[in-house]
Amino acid sequence: MTPYLLRPTRLASLALLVLMLGVDEVTGLGLDSRPNFVLIMVDDLGIGDVGCYGNHTIRTPNIDRLALEGVKLSQHIAAAPLCTPSRAAFLTGRYALRSGLASSGRVPVLLFLAGSGGLPPTETTFAKQLQNLSLTHSPSLPGKWHLGVNCVSRGDHCHHPNQHGFHYFYGLPFTLFNNCVPGQPVDVLADVEQVLRSLSQLLGLALLTLVCLRALGLPSVSVGLLVALTCLTAGGVAVWYVPFCFLQTWNCIVMRNQEVVEQPLVMETLAERMLNEAQHFISRNAHQPFLLFFSLAHVHTPLFNSPAFAGKSRHGVYGDNVEEMDWIIGQVTETVDSLGLANNTMMYFTSDHGGHIEDPQRGGWNGIYKGGKVMGGWEGGIRVPRIFRWPGRLPAGRVVDQPTSLMDLYPTLRHLAQDTEADRPLDGHDLMPLLEGRSRRSEHQFMFHYCGSYLHAVRWQPPDCESLPPTQRTPASALLGPVTGGPRTKGPEHGVPNQMSWDHILWKPWLQPCCGTFPFCGCQDNSRPPG
Q: What number is the average pLDDT over the span 385-397?
């Protein structure tokens, strides 16, 4: 059979049609076939709080829909059981220990916005990497950061999201604490704050007593003793009591890029504003590849009290927050779908670690898994939900029952960007073979679980376990531990200082972000998303 020959005019017409439609002759995809990424991370959500992971009393239809239309991972593990180190590992694909964000002391997360610790500028996040490769346009982060702001001076912004690949940031450079809502109990070094408060009061009482004795003419009370005690009392109040007293104003703020736009933050409208930011970003960039990392403040305490959801769930204010969080995710999904972007958008949903269980009225449920937030060796603190949705690329309704990690997102995005030039060791693995069904086995042989900087447990999957007789097989997912105080199997990269030392954690007034004149900071955000 003689092949059909195109005339020159027809060939030119076809070439024009190809250019107009943007069709690649090899892949059949658009010439600009770079996918969009909508990454959603919630805070402190227990794996048992979600319907598709076994909850039958809290309504999460929008998350459940993502699972029905995408791939659900059932053995997904956070790299740490609390915010700062887990988020550092998520963004970099590396254990937090490598970047100096795993604590060897009693404080495992950044406690003050005006501390000098944070994600080192030398680290590379997936946002920075994709931006360097020109694979995405203006990566955006509405929501929570909690990985530091300044290093040496107010305004150097060395740890800020803008320095880590996110061209646009709106939200909480820190996190939510009880202190962000008046009347809530202190939860930042509460025991230390109480001791120092009591000590300051005792010093003040002693000073007052000596002043009275001096006024009565007691000769043994010297002026030098009074001066020394006065300085000691004033120093104790200035160094400790003042930062704790003003935490709501100084820690709980909203920034747009590097500008403080609200101080202290207004909880009542925060969720709505961050959702608007996410939706506006998707709409503005619908014509070009984009990366959105929507980092929700839900369901971290203090919990939101939104009128539309208050009292609607069967599990009090916590259940109300979970159902509001699900609604927000549904709004983001609807925005993607209504713009016709679903088939070219990888949507991703997860939690930064397990739910906290200390307060049964305000905490989550980690299902069958023991332990919770901050508990590094138990499953409940590190087992998290994870769902990928990408219609046309990933099979709908697939369940992956293999050990995977939050650190796997970075290498997965690198694979999709066709980036093979790694400039540093990564601890995660590309998930696309598992997600697409081309592989049945995770590439993780060992997964290390740290309590701060100390190895607390190890998950082991032998490489040849499927070839062994059933009676000799080690479970595909086995925790060997807890190994409290065990050796450090991995450490910070050469030259990376410990970001979690007291020197980096403690409040420094010269680093405090402020709108207005420090220390009289105060402003309210009445602006709207750009565009």
A: 96
Confidence (pLDDT) at 336: 98
CB within 8 A of 53, min separation 6: which ones? 47, 72, 74, 367, 385
Q: Say if CB 301 and CB 334 are below 8 A apart.
A: no
| Residues paired with residue 478 on neighbouring β-strands, in sequence order | 460
Among 52, 76, 83, 137, which one carries the catalytic annotation? 83
389 phi and psi angles, rounded to 5 deg: -130, 125
Q: What order do you get walking across the sheet with 71-77 strand by strand?
A: 259-262, 254-256, 168-172, 137-144, 290-295, 36-42, 345-351, 386-389, 71-77, 398-405
What are the tens digits of pLDDT across the range 19-56? 444 433 333 334 457 899 999 999 999 999 999 999 99
83 part of the active site:
yes
Strand (E) or helix (H) holding 323: helix 316-338
DSSP-derived secondary structure letter, 64? H
Q: Provide the token pair at 185.
A: 């109990």
Question: 37 or 181: which carries more pLDDT confidence?
Answer: 37
The tally of CA atoms less than 13 A away on the side-chain side of residue 449 is 31
As a residue count, the chain comes to 531
Residue type, 10: R
Among residues 146, 157, 159, 298, the one annotated as catalytic is 146
Dump strand ranges (E) for 197-344: 254-256, 259-262, 290-295
Q: Cα(233)–Cα(227) distance, rounded to whole angstroms?
A: 10
* Domains with residue ranges and CATH for the chain: 33-176+252-521 (3.40.720.10)
Mean pLDDT score across all residues of the chain: 84
Q: What is the pLDDT of residues 113-137, one digit of tens each?
A: 999 999 999 999 999 998 887 767 7
Residues 323, 353: Cα–Cα separation, whole Å:
18
Give CA angle at 298 (270, 74), nearest 5°. 150
Which residues lie closer than 8 Å to 191 by C-beta, 6 or more apart? none
Closest CA to 165 of 92, 83, 84: 92
Cβ atoms 70, 347 nearer than 8 A: yes
